[in-house]
Design brief:
Blueprint lengths: L1 E3 L6 E9 L8 E6 L4 H6 L1 E7 L7 H16 L8 H20 L13 E7 L2 E7 L3 E6 L2 E4 L5 E3 L5 E3 L12 E6 L5 E5 L1 H4 L4 H11 L3 H14 L6 E10 L5 H8 L13 E2 L2 E9 L3 E8 L5 E7 L7 H16 L8 E2 L10 E4 L6 H8 L4 H19 L3 E2 L8 E4 L2 E4 L6 E2 H4 L19 H4 L6 H17 L7 H4 L3 H5 L6 H4 L5 H10 L11 H9 L13 H4 L1 H24 L1
Antiparallel strand pairs: 1-2, 2-13, 3-4, 4-5, 5-6, 6-11, 7-8, 7-12, 9-10, 12-13, 14-15, 15-16, 16-17, 17-19, 18-19, 20-23, 21-22
Helix pairs in contact: 2-3, 5-6, 7-8, 10-13, 10-18, 17-18
């Protein structure tokens, strides 16, 4: 069977062939999936092979489940998950199911057990996942290289057994190798019925002899193994890269991990063609510079990591994540990442230059903004936040300093505190950094170590809007000191209309709901909140009944004095009698 993909940027030719050989049934399974449309760019091409263990009671079923289950489930994983995250999640789930089915037998190895080898081609990289003794080979420039190692343990000159496979144990250890691909690369996948009866030299000679006829090549390999007295099922898959796809965010992430920290920069210094115009900001964690490209003249903002963290793996991962997140977010209300070009030799990233003032600067100049302007800003900032949330990403540091005015539009900047659900679930050998943003604007759940959600960003934005209208924090100084659930419950919200009479009751009601210290009491969606910010909600039109002392202190004390006088006169009259 020959398969060719000609529509997308990543273009391959592929072929596969399988035979039961001398056995009564074929327990091998295979699949090649070349999706159409955007799925090709988002998930790539899957080539997978599995060899059901013949000693198991259900080897054939295990290999079929592994192949069909992996292909179907991999393409159903969220777009925010990396190839590694998606494949590992799916394989772990498949392994648990196969192992569970195998427990019906007295010995697990007699149940649902299969090898599994897979190549996922995405953009300019090949991701090779492998467990068992099937093999993946790469043919490049006339050299054939085995890309996987057999997971077998030899107990004699003629006997060996599988030490790792799907379904053999509850815990799964999968080999992963990521390699760059080039046009002309060929990836060959074989089961042991083929490679145990053909030498690497035989494989190479056949691949070269058949040239571009991939289908003839896989069929010839199977027939040669049969002629060499193969005693097992035989399966071959062959994929040739015809054209590379465009570089993706994941490719960039892989490259960035290998870059060194840049040296300290000063005005006039040049780095990869970018000339430093001025230092914008410097902290213990990073530096910001305004730079200009010496050829194109483009002006951008360069963020560099601090040398204080050159050996801190968690810090480096988070810094790299900033550019990766920025590349994935597409909104006119979120700062855009600028392509650094192919000659980048150091770890840094670039964003568009936004010369406008931050909202913090506007507050310093104007103290408060009028209601229509704040509502207009809110609607646009919500659109920016939704661009994050659609990617299962939280900004986590919404504050006036991180919102820059570009003309009349607000633009969210700074990816230093972002949280990506899919990335956070990937296991690492180090403890990740969990940035909490800025204390005055962070939702209570961060300090209470409760689950974060889109409602956490909603709370932060509500604090910003309240501050734009009143110049104050909705809970005052007590908010910074709160650290327990009881202390957050005791916080007193000051209605915005008390500090700014121009704020309508219904607008304050919408802010108050978004500022609930209990996340469950906030708005279910940002769109619902925007509607209430723009349209009077009848539920918020009732004036709260405050004590007379708060509403009109002078009147309160006049009535108190009069009451005291009357009481004294009555007491005196009774005494005189």
């Amino acid at each position: 069977m020959a398969i060719e993909n000609t529509k997308q940027q990543l273009r391959v030719s592929a072929a596969q062939f399988s035979s039961a050989g001398v056995k009564p049934q074929n327990e091998d399974s295979m699949a090649i999936k070349i999706p159409d449309g955007s799925l090709l760019n988002r998930k790539g091409i899957v080539v997978a092979i599995a060899d059901g263990v013949s000693a198991a009671e259900a080897g054939r079923e295990a290999s079929e489940i592994a192949i069909t289950g992996f292909v179907n489930d991999y393409y159903s994983t969220p777009d925010s998950w990396s190839v590694k995250q998606s494949a590992h999640k799916v394989l772990t789930a498949l392994n648990r199911w196969l192992f569970g089915q195998g427990q019906r037998y007295l010995e697990a190895e007699k149940g649902y057990v299969t090898t599994f080898s897979c190549v996922i081609l995405k953009s300019r990289s090949a991701y090779i996942f492998h467990v068992g003794d099937s093999r993946v080979w790469r043919l490049r420039e006339g050299a054939l290289e085995q890309m996987t190692r057999d997971h077998t343990a030899r107990i004699s000159a003629s006997q060996s057994y599988l030490s790792r496979a799907l379904g053999i144990d509850l815990n799964l250890d999968v080999d992963l190798k990521v390699v760059d691909i080039e046009p002309g690369d060929r990836f060959l996948l074989t089961t042991d019925g083929v490679h145990e009866f053909l030498s690497p030299r035989d494989l190479l000679q056949t691949l070269q002899t058949q040239g571009d006829n991939l289908q003839a090549a896989v069929e010839s390999l199977v027939q040669q193994a049969l002629d060499n007295q193969s005693t097992d099922n035989l399966t071959c898959q062959l994929v040739q890269v015809e054209q590379l796809g465009q570089e993706t965010n994941e490719d960039v992430l892989q490259t960035l991990r290998q870059l060194p920290f840049p040296p300290e920069l000063e005005v006039g210094f040049k780095l990869d063609g970018w000339c430093v115009l001025e230092q914008i900001h410097a902290s213990q964690r990073s530096q910001l510079y305004r730079v200009r490209h010496e050829v194109s003249g483009q002006v951008a903002v360069m963020k560099t990591p601090s040398v204080n963290y050159v050996d801190n793996v968690a810090y480096i991962e988070r810094f790299i994540m900033e550019e990766w997140v920025g590349r994935r977010i597409d909104s006119p209300y979120v700062v855009k990442v600028v392509d650094a070009g192919p000659s980048r030799r150091f770890l840094y990233y670039l964003t568009e230059d936004l010369p406008g003032p931050t909202l913090a600067k506007l507050l310093q100049q104007q103290h408060t903004l009028d209601v229509p302007a704040v509502v207009g800003l809110a609607e646009k900032l919500v659109q920016g936040l939704r661009a994050f949330h659609r990617r299962e990403t939280l900004h986590q540091d919404i504050k006036p300093d991180n919102i820059v005015m570009k003309g009349g539009d607000p633009v969210i900047i700074d990816f230093g505190s972002v949280y990506v659900a899919g990335v956070d679930e990937i296991a690492t050998s180090f403890e990740r950094e969990h940035a909490l943003g800025t204390l005055d604007y962070s939702a209570p759940e961060y300090r209470l170590q409760r689950p974060r959600s889109e409602r956490s960003d909603q709370f932060s934005l509500a604090v910003v809007l309240y501050e734009l209208l009143t110049g104050k924090h909705p809970f005052g100084e007590a908010f910074q000191k709160a650290g327990t659930a009881a202390e957050f419950l005791d916080l007193k919200y000051t209605p915005a209309y008390r500090r700014n009479p121009m704020v309508p009751l219904w607008l304050d009601g919408a802010l108050r709901k978004a500022l609930q210290t209990n996340a469950e009491l906030r708005y279910d969606s940002l769109s619902e909140w925007v509607h209430d910010l723009k349209h009077p909600n009848p539920a918020f039109l009732k004036v709260e009944q405050r004590p007379l002392l708060e509403r009109d202190p002078a009147r309160f004390w006049r009535w108190a004095a009069l009451t005291l006088l009357v009481t004294n006169l009555l007491t005196l009259g009774l005494w005189l009698k």
